[in-house]
């Protein structure tokens, strides 16, 4: 290990342990030579309805594309904080779209899903201009962003409203997502979903069908915010029961927050999240994934 990389790793780890602006540190340590970025493209009229595009450098023709939604309990977050995700996937030959969306208290459920559908529609219609193949389209998210991704992949209502369907996805990827969380316990989330009158159709697990795209679910065994057994395990089991190809992985050195941080170059030692995502996207026959096991690492 080079002294430069060791120094970067130590700085990132120290920041995480001290809870001192970890995202800023990760982005500061993120290489800039592996991608080109196009910023703040409007996919709607609201100031929050903008997206960034990360393309591999050098450019790759007909690259797969991932639309990524970040977490933050539907009340916080910015696409500008997740450059490390864009860089990581772009370094593996993937075009990445990171979209902002409206948050509480500006909006409640389901407005952020409508935004997500609009961002996906923009990507599907325009991403070929940026070197990607819309026929190799994936949707991905972490935490509440994984919820958004799952609803777009499983509940046809949202894409139908923009003239599309979940069949446009070659697959979807969820990191530490809440997929079955009624009754709501988190006080920050309760008003987002009209607690105590939270609609049952807001739950991804209630929209599982045999038509769902191939699925990659990743969680941390140490997640204290989103129960991995109920959410990741429960959704994986229900998808498999109707014949949907599912890959499912659990990592023990991570927690809810560091699971996505492990995608970044300084923290990849925590868990092979990036490797699993890359392998899922590169798989030539997603149907083969239904026979794979669900290891804990």
From TrEMBL:
SUPFAM superfamilies: alpha/beta-Hydrolases. InterPro entries: AB_hydrolase_fold, BD-FAE-like_dom, GDXG_lipolytic_enzyme. The keyword Magnesium does not apply. Pfam families: BD-FAE. Residues 1-28 form the signal peptide. GO terms for molecular function: hydrolase activity. Keywords: Hydrolase, Signal. Residues 51-156 form the BD-FAE-like domain. The keyword Aminoacyl-tRNA synthetase does not apply. PANTHER family: AB HYDROLASE SUPERFAMILY PROTEIN C4A8.06C (PTHR48081), CARBOXYLESTERASE (PTHR48081:SF9). This is Alpha/beta hydrolase.
């Amino acid at each position: 290990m080079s002294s430069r990389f060791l120094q970067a790793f130590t700085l990132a780890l120290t920041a995480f342990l001290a809870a001192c602006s970890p995202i800023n540190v990760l982005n500061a340590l993120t290489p800039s030579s592996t991608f080109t970025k196009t910023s703040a493209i409007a996919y709607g009229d609201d100031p929050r309805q903008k997206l960034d595009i990360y393309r591999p450098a050098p450019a790759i023709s007909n690259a797969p594309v991932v639309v990524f939604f970040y977490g933050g309990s539907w009340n916080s977050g910015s696409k500008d904080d997740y450059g490390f995700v864009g860089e990581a996937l772009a370094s593996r030959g993937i075009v990445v779209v990171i979209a902002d969306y409206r948050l509480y208290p500006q909006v409640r459920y389901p407005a952020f899903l409508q935004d997500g559908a609009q961002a996906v529609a923009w990507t599907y219609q325009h991403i070929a201009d940026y070197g990607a193949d819309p026929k190799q389209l994936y949707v991905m998210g972490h935490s509440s962003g994984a919820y958004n991704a799952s609803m777009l992949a499983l509940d046809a209502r949202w894409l139908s409203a923009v003239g599309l369907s979940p069949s446009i996805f070659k697959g979807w990827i969820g990191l530490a997502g809440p997929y079955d969380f009624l009754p709501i316990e988190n006080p920050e989330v309760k008003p987002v979903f009209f607690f105590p009158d939270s609609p049952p159709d807001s739950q991804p697990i209630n929209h599982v069908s045999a038509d769902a795209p191939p699925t990659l679910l990743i969680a941390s065994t140490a997640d204290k915010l989103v129960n991995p057994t109920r959410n990741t395990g429960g959704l994986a089991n229900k998808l498999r029961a109707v014949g949907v190809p599912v890959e499912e992985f659990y990592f023990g050195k991570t927690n809810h927050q560091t699971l996505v941080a492990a995608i970044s170059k300084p923290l990849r030692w925590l868990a092979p999240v990036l490797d699993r995502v890359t392998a899922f996207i590169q798989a030539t026959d997603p149907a083969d994934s239904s026979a794979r096991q669900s290891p804990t690492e």
